[in-house]
Amino acid sequence: MSRNRQQWVLPLSIFVALLLGLLPLPAWLQPLRPYWLALAVVYWVIEAPGRIGLGFAFAMGLLADLAFGGLLGEQALRLVIMAFIVQRFRAQLRFFPMPQQALAIGGLLLNDRVVSAAVHLALGEPQLPWSFWWAPLLGMLLWAPVFLLLDTLRLGRKGG
């Protein structure tokens, strides 16, 4: 019964991640914006593999492409690649200690930047400035609090 009561956590986490991605920031903070949607999707791929997979990642990527106004399909591709890697290594990733898990997420986010750069290069689109390569580091540092918050909400634990 507790699972049914916590059904709202998934859509709310995706909605909040999209809002955080759209939140206006000063120009000097833009390069540090973590890929919130990727953090949320990766959490759900790890914790709800029966319900959340590549199709979900693709749909959320298309939604993000529409919301953020970028190249249609770019974020969908990036999230599908990320979800595929997470699915492939889920058994190991799930049992890593949190610092090691955060390092793995940092690697995924760095790989995401490489995929984005490759897509932009292939299509002749302008590349992001080098300062935007700091965002995966911030995403890695935010993984533990994001994971713990979503886990607490999903499992319905009381703080304290």
Automatic annotation (TrEMBL):
Keywords: Cell inner membrane, Cell membrane, Cell shape, Membrane, Transmembrane, Transmembrane helix. Its main location: membrane. The chain crosses the membrane at residues 53-72, 93-110, 130-150. It is a multi-pass membrane protein. NCBIfam families: shape_MreD. Belongs to the MreD family. This is Rod shape-determining protein MreD. The gene is mreD.
